[in-house]
């Protein structure tokens, strides 16, 4: 067997030091993504630093200068987070997104930070016998001219057209979530939308984290808008499939026009896609079929589709229209 | 070994047959005590196997230039690496799929080019990753097109005529008031049984017979494995001892041994007497253990204005592998389904540098009847005739292919009873007429048919035990269907005893020969032999035999060469909802009404039929293996990307059957039920999707994007 070191540090600082000082080290949490990659030969670390038992499993509300936030520890299991009373009552879109992901068994195993940091999905990335720029930079992108049903339509590059598979991260992108990161030089915070990156000419990098930086938790603002959020996933079967497209949304209207709106998409890009142009287009206008479709089209102005992904444009439009119209109907109820 | 008696079985006096005897192996399975192939450790000599890991070709065509095993051999725990230069020679290399590690040729991407032997599975796997294989690659062809399907096979699976032509189809079509002319496609599909293919092999000196090759294999037929492998490795069939006590599904892919079994045997010879264990991975199954070819069916139906068929033409195109031929019998089911004076069928293949296709879940009938039954729906629309009524109008008096009468043809009853139970009469005639919230709602139906197969070469042995019990032995395999249970019931009734008095032994090649668990033929083939043996035993030894009295018999009757033809039939009804904004598809109701002769056990039968309907649903909505022709292999090679129906996709699915018995066919009155549930189901779903939306989909699977515009 291939020998590798396995260490289980007792503090986050030790964990950071263990990875930062070793180029071949990787963090291991729930393992639902990394262990697959170990078996397939996609990931071949020399050392695994197990962070799953670090004291990062708390879910609690905190009053901050940015208002009340829900602070979620990195190792909180997806199933536990989806079922948490505050998430269910104040962040329904996040709860729905979590429950739309994977299977019951995997949600019991997968962690919050691991879900954010799972690799983008592509059949060629997982198949070490085919070229893939993400796995082997410079080897070429097999998906450009190959199997493309799940390919990105926004923000892709000639080097990579993979999509980020997380549902949870799409809801977090819509909900202005901050990611708390511990590095060798201390702690920093960034919007979750700055965590994931587009492939550009470095598709091997899924995130903006430096080697050794550890996501210790996330902070989600508990706003009135977040309390009416929702998540809608369209997939090839009724459960246990990655999104063809997905929509995380929240909207508040007054006098028939939008006061505030959040919109993010999954299944369309290398990162969860916060649809800011669409939000802008919707603000101060009505929420009706035409307005939402126009907003979607504004966001998709720069979309690049192939024969395999053409469907994503009408599917996104349909799912977004349905989701926002239902939210507005729900306001009256 | 005693002589085998030939006995014409007489119809059983049924008592246990037809009752809900609980699965006799249920407790073993639900408590986890049932051992599957590579879990066997108890038997002497099998306790400490070495592990094997396969190395597969990364080119689709060419030659292996060199296999550099130095890094692998330097790895801790790796004992040896066998390739085409070092593996033992096979004595028979006729079968191109099975003749692995014999020469440098590469016939398809994913072919076995080396095998690593190691102390542990982990070491073997890492060793395989360290084997460096260099190739001299050649241009390959891996894309299936109708234009490229020009090869005419001598026959189609298993031995049907390649083409048929009765009457004058072209003239009839030219003179028909209504013509449907369209092409229908089914994708590559992989069987994906829950238990991957797996083998323990031990090559050793036996007690008296010289060399023995002992195999514990996950197979649909232990005798088939023994008789295939034995001549290849230079042994007599009796020297290859195969058992398969429990098998986690096969769906055709374990019907015959694949190259992994040959590799296990070759490696075991090298490590003798220490056994080896080889478990194929899920990803490897997409290259090594069979699949259904993609098919295209060009259908031309001619009919009068009332929908009575005047011409049926079914031209089937599929793909085979250069290294070994397999011709899916896509159009064969069409030959016997509907009456028409003018009928023509044909099969043509594209021969590609790809993995070897094989049997998968109703080969032939599934893709072929799909095409025919969607075309029939189009005909119903074109004629303005209700789809159920259209079928009723075209049911043949006799088998159109042979002119012989059917033994038991009750399709009309299936159609009428099924329509009644489903609530078909409430259906609006127009497509796209029903909207429920965001969902378009429709219903559709299709006919199902499957031939009655009864295989030759089956024998059973009955031995009296003490206490009025009987051992009944036959070397067949229960792959999870309930065969153990049903054969116990058949044996009990044939012997006139309680099922508790029957000690059934199966799944061992040292038991009397039995045919493969395939073609929905198991109960009919094995049950007839068991009936014959029991009846011959009673005739010979009476009802109170001395313990030890024993007799082996085969069933001497051959209904398939008699005056009748044998087909089961069914009618499948589906309700489909299609989301008007996203195109998502749900199937809230699926119901099949069948005529299958006598049902041996309602519990296991319902499981078979409902399981078939679920597989049909899965093929309708999900299953598709995507081959990337640039590389030559399937890139959706795991269960995250090769979708099968999940629990949430399987809603109200039910099956029922007409009470009946076909004693012309078997002494139990049974025909097979393993595959008919699959046939027609995808067509019913597609036809319902058309009724919901007005969009006619002609290629499987039907996915959400089919119902969305261009953007």
Automatic annotation (TrEMBL), chain A:
Keywords: Oxidoreductase
Annotated FAD-binding PCMH-type domain residues: 1-225
Pfam families: CO_deh_flav_C (PF03450), FAD_binding_5 (PF00941)
PANTHER family, A to Z: OXIDOREDUCTASE, XANTHINE DEHYDROGENASE SUBUNIT C-RELATED
InterPro entries: CO_DH_flav_C (IPR005107), CO_DH_flav_C_dom_sf (IPR036683), Diverse_Substr_Oxidored (IPR051312), FAD-bd_PCMH (IPR016166), FAD-bd_PCMH-like_sf (IPR036318), FAD-bd_PCMH_sub1 (IPR016167), FAD-bd_PCMH_sub2 (IPR016169), Mopterin_DH_FAD-bd (IPR002346)
A GO molecular function held by the record: oxidoreductase activity
Top-rank taxon, per record: Bacteria
Name of the molecule in the record: Xanthine dehydrogenase family protein subunit M
Lineage of the organism: Bacteria, Bacillati, Actinomycetota, Actinomycetes, Micrococcales
SUPFAM superfamilies: CO dehydrogenase flavoprotein C-terminal domain-like, FAD-binding/transporter-associated domain-like
From TrEMBL, chain B:
Keywords: Molybdenum, Oxidoreductase
Protein name: Xanthine dehydrogenase family protein molybdopterin-binding subunit
GO molecular function: iron ion binding; oxidoreductase activity
Sequence ranges assigned to domain Aldehyde oxidase/xanthine dehydrogenase a/b hammerhead in this UniProt record: 31-139
InterPro entries according to UniProt: Ald_Oxase/Xan_DH_a/b, Ald_Oxase/Xan_DH_a/b_sf, Ald_Oxase/xanthine_DH-like, AldOxase/xan_DH_MoCoBD1, AldOxase/xan_DH_MoCoBD2, AldOxase/xan_DH_Mopterin-bd_sf
Classification of source organism: Bacteria, Bacillati, Actinomycetota, Actinomycetes, Micrococcales
Statement: the UniProt record of this protein carries the keyword Oxidoreductase: yes
Record has Oxidoreductase as a keyword: yes
């Amino acid at each position: 067997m291939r020998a590798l070191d396995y260490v289980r540090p007792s503090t986050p600082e030790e964990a950071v030091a263990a990875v930062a000082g070793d180029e071949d080290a990787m963090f291991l949490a729930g393992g639902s993504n990394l262990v697959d990659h170990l078996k397939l030969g996609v990931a071949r670390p020399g050392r695994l630093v197990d962070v799953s038992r670090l004291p990062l499993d708390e879910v609690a509300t905190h009053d901050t200068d940015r208002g009340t936030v829900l602070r979620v520890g990195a190792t909180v299991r997806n199933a536990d987070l989806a079922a948490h009373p505050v998430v269910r009552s104040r962040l329904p879109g996040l709860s729905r997104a979590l429950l739309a992901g994977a299977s019951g068994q995997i949600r019991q195993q997968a962690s919050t930070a691991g879900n954010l940091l799972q690799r983008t999905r592509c059949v060629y990335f997982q198949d070490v016998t085919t070229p893939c720029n993400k796995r082997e930079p410079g080897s070429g992108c097999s998906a450009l001219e190959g199997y493309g049903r799940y390919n990105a339509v926004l923000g892709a590059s000639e080097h990579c057209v993979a999509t980020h598979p997380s549902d949870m991260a799409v809801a977090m992108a819509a909900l202005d979530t901050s990611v708390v990161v511990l590095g060798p030089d201390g702690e920093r915070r960034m919007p979750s939308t700055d965590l994931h990156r587009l492939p550009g000419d470095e598709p091997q990098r899924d995130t903006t984290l430096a080697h050794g930086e550890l996501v210790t938790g996330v902070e989600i603002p508990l706003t009135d808008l977040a309390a009416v959020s929702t998540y809608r996933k369209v997939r090839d079967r009724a459960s246990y499939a990655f999104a063809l497209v997905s929509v995380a949304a929240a909207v508040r209207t007054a006098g028939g026009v939008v006061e505030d709106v959040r919109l993010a998409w999954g299944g369309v890009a290398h990162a969860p896609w916060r649809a800011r142009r669409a939000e802008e287009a919707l603000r101060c206008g009505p929420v009706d079929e035409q307005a939402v479709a126009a907003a979607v089209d504004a966001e998709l102005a720069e979309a690049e589709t192939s024969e395999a992904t053409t469907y994503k444009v009408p599917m996104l439009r349909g799912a977004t229209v349905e989701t926002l119209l239902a939210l507005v109907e729900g306001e009256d109820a | 070994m005693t002589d085998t008696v030939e006995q014409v079985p007489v119809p059983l006096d049924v008592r246990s047959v037809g009752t809900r005897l609980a699965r006799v192996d249920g407790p073993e399975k639900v408590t986890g005590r049932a051992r599957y192939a590579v879990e066997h450790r108890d038997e002497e000599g099998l306790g400490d196997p070495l592990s094997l890991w396969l190395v597969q070709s990364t080119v689709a065509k060419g030659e292996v230039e060199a296999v550099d095993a130095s890094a692998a051999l330097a790895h801790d725990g790796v004992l040896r690496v066998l390739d085409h230069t070092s593996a033992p020679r096979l004595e028979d290399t006729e079968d191109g799929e099975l003749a692995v590690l014999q020469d440098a040729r590469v016939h398809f991407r994913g072919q076995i080019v080396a095998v690593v032997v190691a102390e542990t599975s982990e070491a073997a796997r890492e060793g395989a990753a360290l084997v460096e294989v260099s190739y001299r690659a050649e241009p390959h062809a891996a894309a299936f097109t109708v234009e490229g399907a020009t090869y005419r096979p001598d026959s189609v699976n298993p031995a049907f005529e390649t083409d048929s032509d009765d009457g004058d189809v072209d003239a009839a079509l030219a003179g028909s008031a209504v013509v449907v002319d369209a092409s229908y496609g089914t994708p590559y599909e992989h069987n994906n049984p829950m238990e991957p293919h797996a083998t323990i092999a031990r090559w050793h000196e036996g007690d008296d017979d010289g060399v023995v090759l002992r195999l514990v294999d996950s197979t649909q037929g232990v005798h088939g494995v023994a008789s295939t492998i034995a001549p290849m490795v230079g042994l007599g069939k009796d020297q290859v001892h195969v058992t398969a006590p429990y098998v986690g599904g096969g769906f055709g892919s374990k019907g015959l041994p694949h190259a992994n079994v040959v590799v296990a045997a070759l490696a075991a010879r090298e490590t003798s007497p220490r056994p080896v264990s080889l478990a194929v991975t899920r990803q490897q199954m997409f290259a090594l253990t069979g699949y259904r070819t993609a098919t295209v069916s060009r259908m031309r139906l001619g009919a009068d204005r009332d929908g009575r068929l005047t011409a049926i033409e079914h031209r089937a195109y599929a793909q085979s592998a250069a290294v070994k031929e397999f011709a899916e019998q896509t159009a064969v089911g069409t030959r016997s389904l509907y009456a028409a004076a003018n009928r023509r069928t044909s099969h043509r293949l594209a021969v590609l540098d790809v993995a070897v296709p094989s049997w998968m879940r109703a080969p032939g009938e599934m893709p072929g009847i799909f095409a025919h039954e969607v075309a029939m729906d189009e005909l119903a629309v074109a004629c303005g005739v209700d789809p159920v009524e259209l079928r009723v109008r075209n049911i043949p008096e006799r088998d159109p292919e042979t002119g012989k009468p059917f033994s038991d043809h009750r399709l009309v009853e299936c159609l009428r009873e099924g329509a009644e139970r489903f609530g078909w009469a409430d259906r609006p005639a127009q497509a796209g007429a029903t909207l429920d919230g965001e969902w378009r709602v429709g219903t559709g139906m299709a006919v199902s048919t499957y031939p009655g197969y009864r295989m030759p070469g089956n024998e059973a042995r009955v031995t009296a035990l003490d206490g009025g019990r009987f051992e009944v032995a036959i070397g067949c395999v229960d792959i999870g269907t309930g065969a153990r249970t049903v054969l116990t019931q058949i044996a009990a009734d044939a012997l006139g005893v309680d099922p508790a008095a029957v000690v059934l032994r199966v799944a061992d090649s040292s038991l009397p020969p039995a045919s493969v668990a395939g073609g929905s033929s198991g109960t009919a083939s094995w049950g007839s032999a068991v009936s014959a043996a029991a009846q011959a035993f009673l005739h010979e030894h009476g009802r109170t035999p001395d313990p030890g009295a024993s007799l082996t018999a085969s069933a001497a009757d051959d209904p398939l060469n008699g005056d009748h033809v044998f087909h089961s039939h069914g009618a499948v009804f589906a309700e489909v909802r299609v989301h008007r904004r996203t195109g998502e598809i749900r199937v809230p109701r699926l119901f099949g009404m069948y005529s299958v002769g006598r049902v041996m056990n309602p519990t296991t039968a319902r499981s078979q039929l409902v399981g078939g309907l679920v597989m049909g649903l899965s093929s309708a909505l999900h299953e598709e293996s995507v081959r990337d022709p640039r590389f030559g292999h399937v890139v959706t090679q795991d269960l995250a990307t090769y979708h099968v129906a999940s629990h949430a996709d399987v809603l109200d699915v039910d099956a029922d059957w007409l009470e009946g018995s076909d004693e012309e066919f078997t002494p139990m009155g049974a025909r097979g039920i393993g595959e008919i549930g699959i046939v027609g189901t995808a067509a019913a779903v597609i036809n319902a999707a058309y009724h919901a939306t007005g969009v006619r989909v002609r290629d499987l699977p039907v996915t959400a994007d089919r119902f969305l515009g261009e953007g």
